[in-house]
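User: Structure tokens for both sequences below?

Assistant:
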Amino acid sequence: MLNTSFSHSNLQLCLSPFLTLTFNRALAEGFPPQWTMKTVARIHKGEDPMDPNKYKTIIIGHMLAKLYGAIMEAELNNYMETLSLRALEHADFRRAFSTIDHIFTLRCLIDETKAPKKK
């Protein structure tokens, strides 16, 4: 009988060597042309099909290119955070930072510029 159960660890053990080889080859030789191709599709959201505002645009790309990008982003983020190479002001898309951090900083700057100047 064929074992059809896929656990996270089984899948990782099976795919990891293939993905490592594929991604290292892409780094060394360049991306396969298929990875750079994208398809733009418009999905109807309902109601009047003649109204262009009732459509959502999506871009469909190659799955391995998306996975490669996600892995590279995670690695670069980890590298930059570990070595403290990012400016503290660059808070978007970082763990433990949120929009409220930017709002707070902006509010402080506004208050500082409006405060009476000391002589």
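Moving on to the next sequence.
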Amino acid sequence: MNKKLINFPSAFLENYQNIIGKEKIKEIREAARSLKGKHIVHLSSTYQGGGVAEMLNTLVLLLNDLDITCGWRLLKGSKLFFNITKSFHNALQGSEIDLTEETKRIYENTTKYNSIFTHLGHHDLIVVHDPQPLSIIKNLKENQKWIWRCHIDITEPNQNLWQYLKQYINQYDEMIISDEKYIKDDITIPQTIIHPSIDPLSDKNKDLTEEEAKKIISDLNISLDKPIILQVSRYDIWKDPEGVLEVFKKVKKEIDCQLVFVGNIADDDPEAVEIYQKIIEKAKNVKDTHFLVNIENNDISINALQKMADLVLQKSIKEGFALTISESFWKETPVIASNVGGIPLQVVNDKNGFLIDNPMDYDSFAEKIIYLLNNKEKREEMGKFAKEYVKENFLVTKHLLDYINLFKKHLT
């Protein structure tokens, strides 16, 4: 890679030295040496609008910087196909699904169609992300190694769908999950835990001055005259935007504050537009609410909001991991979140935020929000702990090393 031609800080491992230290950089380079020249490719369903795409944007660049030839392919499909895979996503998190033979036919035919022009056959290892491209292995597996990376909360999947998808999962050589609670006894291949990560050099997480952050927020027509409660999430039933609004209404009775809910609508998420329109209608008469979608300069805007928010909410009903929590922690902002999925891996109760056991317990959410808004010293104490916790556990450089060690297991 010609470093003179690349203007992305995240493209080069050395740029992380001031954050993780010279010895950790050396450790990563040493670990990657035996993979030099190997061909690895990631396959996912979208290049923007979610945590998977954000992580791959950095990980693929860094793997190439380590002289590992790493590519990234995108799944192509119709609106009907992505409606089907969205229903798969929901069902893997426990929703009901009408899994007809026609549904299966459309799903399988689309991945078969993709298998023709993605040209995955000459790679040494393929990493397939989430259920959208899962069944592509049926048409392609030869002598390469295949890994399925599941980013979803599969604690209690719909069993009808699970039995169907399991036939494809068990054709892989390994399955990556985010939390030990997602380990499945009926999966015959090895299952390994790798935590998602944030990139501290990306626009979403790089250091901003307070003046820069204030200017960005002002450009969004949001005032800093009142405390900000922030949730950054996709417009998705599992992120519970309606519940967030109900919690805010309770808090607003006690403290004059404002709610900012910001998220993207991804290409592979056809439900999101309807959910967004519904919450806009419900919030139209609730003062001091801002529901933003696909905002211009999205990443730097979210960075500024997470930095200047008084606290962040993550009121998920189901959650694979929720990287928005670690993003907020990196800006020293405490988080109040549901005790579900991968969230308790990040939130240490009463240390960097609060966990609410029942996601539908609006009163408990409101009580903790009011407590933190009234206690600046506690917020600052939590914020300092939060940043160090992310530095030790959830930076992309640790994620990179975890990937390297797993790839070595299959390729050396």
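User: Anything stand out in the second?

Assistant: The mean pLDDT is 95.
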